Amino acid sequence: MSRGLSLIALLLLAAVSFGLYQLSYEVQRLEEELIEMNRALSQERETIGVLQAEWSYLSRPEYLQDKALRLLGMRPATAKDIVAIEALPWRQDRGPDRGQPMAAAPAAQPAQPAAASAASPVVPSMQVAAKPEAVPSAAAPAVNFDAEVAAVLGAMQRPANDKRRAQ
User: Fold this and answer.
1) For a tag site, which of 27, 45, 73, 110 has the least CB within 10 Å?
2) C-alpha dihedral over 32, 38, 44, 45, to 10 degrees?
3) Cβ–Cβ contacts within 10 Å for residue 116, how many?
C-alpha cells in the first residue's frame, strides 16, 4: 500500500511541478506583453504631444489670418461694415417676432455713418467680403490642406517607424 501511495504522491508532485512551470512562463509572457503595451502607450502619448504642438502652431492667429486673407477672400472689418442690428435682414424662415414665417424679407436699411453707430454691436474682426476681390492665381496658388496634413503626419510617423524597426 505504501508503494501505491508513493506512486500517487510522485504523480501528484509531477503534475504540480508541470503546472508551476507553465504558470511561470505564462507570467513571463504577460510581463513582456505589459512592457510592450507600456512602450506603445508612451509612444502614443509622445505622438499626441507632437500633434498638440502642431495644432497650436497651425492655430496661431497670424497664420489663420494669412490663410483667411489668401485662400478664403476674407478681410478685416472696416467702419463701413458696422451697422445697427435693425439694418440686418431677418432670416427667411422666421418673422420679426421670431415665431411666425415671413412672407417677404424687409429690405435692409442703408448703413449708418461710423460715428452714429458707435454704440452698435461690433462686427467680428474677420468677415467674409460681400464681393471677394479676384485673387490672381499666380499670387496665391491654391493649397490642398489635405495634402499638407498628410505630409505632416507622414513626416511625424517616419521617425516612429524607424524606432520600431531598430527595436
Assistant:
1) 110
2) -160
3) 11
Report which of 66, 70, 82 is spatially closest to residue 132, judged by C-alpha positions: 70
User: In whole angstroms, what is the distance from residue 74 CA to residue 81 CA?
Assistant: 13
Residue 140's nearest CA partner among 72, 90, 88, 83 is 72
Say how far residue 73 (Cα) sits from the centre of its chain: 24
- pLDDT tens digits for range 117-160: 444 444 444 444 444 444 444 444 455 667 777 777 777 776 55
pLDDT digits (tens, 9 = 90+) for 100-125: 555 544 444 444 444 444 444 444 44
What pTM value is reported for the model? 0.39
Contact call for residues 77 and 126 (beta carbons, < 8 A): yes
